[in-house]
Design a protein that fits this description.
binds 3-isopropylmalic acid; Isopropylmalate Dehydrogenase; 10-stranded mixed sheet; binds manganese (II) ion; 360 residues; 12 helices
Length: 360
């Protein structure tokens, strides 16, 4: 679908959320000036919503998110709200939104850029050319399973998966693999967990509809090791909610910094774009956070939601060009880098987008 008028809901959230979202908005502004009609509205989520309304997301904001063409999120959470009960924490704002909009498919591309080979803590020869996607189930599993509870003496959660939840995310995984190198690794803990036994069985069944895709299975502990040992073996990693959460943070470090990883959360009707990283309260407000992940979220949005691959490519090229020129935030700095602030690198990327955009 190519849309002429785009309505975005912006949810900056907490910590570094607002400052990185500000950089993404600079890029959106350039695209607007280039002739695409984009309306934005900004709302509260997470700790910011708790401070204002006493809850991490209001019903009105969920409704606005539902009505928007896409949602752009910064990050939620922070030490300030850590003593609140689970259902009143900032994170619950995001989880409720994912559930309410049925955003069950979370796509997290992991691509190592040549310019950042020296920014990673891992050896160059291991990570060069790494390019895979983590497809994480996002509205099921232990994040949402009932019963759950806590008292002074015990605490428990439920890892539960329904067949239809596994089927639909498996289809997304196979479809993504089909557009890539046609290799899918399904990650589970089927040697121990019943929920994973069903996961493996259902993925194998859905595979019959995608015979052109090479399917293999890995246990999550082994996969965590393989990502460090030989990350180039992966094309698409398909996994459940909690394993995907953990493996995507791990994978981020191949790229040099978790500040580089964007993600798309997709449902039947809605889409939300958020960086893989958190709110980083320790560096919030210092103008040193890496806005690349948030800016790359805008690139993903134009690709997945608006079917404008050329705009998406332009944004990615702009990010790569600025990094190639040696400009870095501290998290990805190398020996000869020019270390610049969040807002300065945002300006540079936006300016580069402007130079690269073809006239509409
Ligand atoms: C992520 C985050 C979230 C998650 C938190 C903020 C609820 O870590 O998107 O990876 O655990 O899904
Ligand atoms: Mn996470």
């Amino acid at each position: 679908m190519t849309k002429d008028r785009i309505k975005l809901l912006i949810l900056p959230g907490d910590g570094i959320g607002p400052e990185i979202v500000e950089q993404a908005l600079k890029v959106i502004d350039i695209i607007k000036k280039n002739g695409i009609m984009i309306e934005t509205e900004t709302e509260l989520i997470g700790g910011a919503a708790i401070d204002q309304y006493g809850i991490p997301i209001t019903r009105e904001v969920i409704q606005k998110a539902d009505n928007a063409d896409a949602v752009i999120l910064g990050a939620v959470g922070g030490t300030k709200w850590e003593s609140l009960p689970a259902d009143l924490r900032p994170e619950q704002g995001l989880l409720s939104l994912r559930k309410a909009l049925n955003l069950y498919a979370n796509i997290r591309p992991v691509k190592v850029l040549d310019s950042l080979l020296d920014s990673s803590t891992l050896k160059k020869e291991i990570i060069k050319g790494v390019d895979f996607v983590v497809v994480r189930e996002l509205t099921g599993g232990i994040y949402f399973g009932e019963p759950r509870g806590i008292d002074d003496n015990k605490a428990f959660n439920t890892e539960i998966y329904f067949k239809n939840e596994i089927e639909r995310i498996a289809r997304i995984g196979f479809q993504i693999a089909r557009k890539r190198k046609k290799k899918l690794v399904s990650v589970d803990k089927a040697n121990v967990l019943e929920s994973s036994m069903l996961w493996r069985k259902v993925v194998a069944k859905i595979h019959k509809d995608y015979p052109d895709i090479q399917l293999s299975h890995q246990y999550v502990d082994n996969c965590a090791m393989q990502i460090i040992k030989n990350p180039r073996q992966f094309d698409v990693i398909l996994t459940n909610n909690i394993f995907g959460d953990i493996l995507s943070d791990e994978s981020a470090m191949l790229t040099g910094s978790i500040g580089m990883l964007a993600s798309a959360s997709l449902g039947p009707k809605n889409s939300l774009y958020e960086p893989v990283h958190g709110s980083a309260p320790d560096i919030a407000g210092k103008d040193i956070a890496n806005p690349c992940a948030e800016i790359l979220c805008i690139a993903m949005m134009f690709d997945y939601t608006f079917n404008r691959a050329e705009i998406s490519r332009t944004i990615k090229n702009a990010v790569e060009d600025v990094l190639n020129q040696g400009f870095r935030t501290p998290d990805i700095a190398q020996a000869n880098s020019h270390i610049i602030s969040t807002s300065k690198i945002g300006d540079k990327i936006a300016r580069r987008v402007k130079e690269l955009l073809p006239a509409e």
